[in-house]
Amino acid sequence: MTSRFTIFFTASILLFAAGAHAEEHKMHLDDLAVPISDMTVVDQGRGIFSEKCSACHGGEAVGTGRAPCLSCGKFMFRGNTNSEIFETIYSGTPRTGSRGGKMGAFSSVLSDAEIVSLVTYLRATEKARIAAGEIDDPAAANQDAMVFPD
Ligand code: HEC
Description:
Elements: H1 3-17, H2 39-52, H3 54-57, H4 82-91, H5 112-131
Helix pairs in contact: 2-5, 4-5
Bound molecules: heme C (HEC).
């Protein structure tokens, strides 16, 4: 975890503790909270995603042949917590063993708040897809592989 992230992470916990009313998403108690019902944040994330991410990860983050689905309830590179997804966007996907190495770091082009808006957008999209019955709930799903649709 980078120090810039640690500072932001702590600030966001204090912000939420101070009584923001938006619905939060967390994978566990200490996870970075993202405000998935705050449409301003979700829409900001959607805009950045379509500009910087969808060429590889597809519209609605459903994945393409070159990059995995990010709205399927599965995040395998670092892990499936909001903090780990933040870290993956921040630092990229350095090659580890047989995987990774294809996505650069976004820490120099996106602010921490912009990265949080991306995580928020991805979680809001995932939640909508769970509600629509398109994907399994990640809490129940088998977390075994990245998804690369054809
Ligand atoms: C040049 C293509 C490309 C672009 C642009 C790109 N990615 Fe990726 N991304 C990948 C690939 C490929 C992987 C799979 C890991 C690997 O092979 O390096 C990946 C992996 C990821 C993962 C980890 C998935 C998992 O299962 O844990 C996240 C999160 C992610 N990308 C988010 C983003 C976001 C957000 C953006 C836009 C800011 C973005 N990516 C832009 C190609 C891209």
